[in-house]
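task queued by scheduler; priority normal; single chain, no ligands, no partner chains; default sampling; output format set to structure tokens
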Amino acid sequence: MIESLILGAVQGVTEWLPISSSASILLVKNLFFNDSSINILQFSLFLHLGTFFAALVYFRKDVFLILKTVFQYNSSSEEDKKVLRFLVISSLITGVLGVFLIKYFEDFLNIGPVATFFVGLFLIITGVLQLKKREVGKRDVLELKTSDGLLLGVVQALSALPGFSRSGFTVAVLVFRKFKEDTALRLSFLMSLPVVLGGNIFLNISDLSLVKDNLPGLFTSFVFGLLTIDILLRLARKYNFGRFVIFFGLVAILASLLS
């Protein structure tokens, strides 16, 4: 129970920063709960439900507009239609590729030192991507294209692997495609919602022991996520976390070599 509570809190805080919450969970688990037998990818996905509900509360106006567009598509604004199409395309791509990656790498990522080493490597790649100089973009949601949904679906699927920060990776790619930073951040978190919900329905809902044993973690993930989302998203907009992510990755690699 203590393990679940602590890892839920880690998820709740790190989800809003471009540092890979899944990597943070894996590293804390391997460093402090190394005798645990949990499946790290399934467990991390389950804890994302807590921050899913926190994001629903925070982005409730956007979520309401999306749901309204689903049921009143013809009378919706062009902006809302484009956001909905983007979310549908990106979610379908992420779902197909993400399930493949989770099934292919789940055993590998439960081998402590090896997993920690590759998580560190993925973190360094993420950090370098974040440090790359960005030009100020002018695109907004009215300029969303099918290609944006396809590309971001692939990018988000890669973040199923701990170390590739979902928010950091997707925001960076959207900014590289000339979207405004605020638009990129909003789209990034909106596109995570259907994937987290769908992933848990297809991969975790039948695993009653995982759900029952980790409800405390789900609770702390939601509470810490709700308490920190506003201030941490402000920090994510204001500061570049690239150097910190690279340092985090180097520490992970060093820890794997010393273990």
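post-processing summary
- The first helix runs from residue 2 to 14.
- The radius of gyration is 18 Å.
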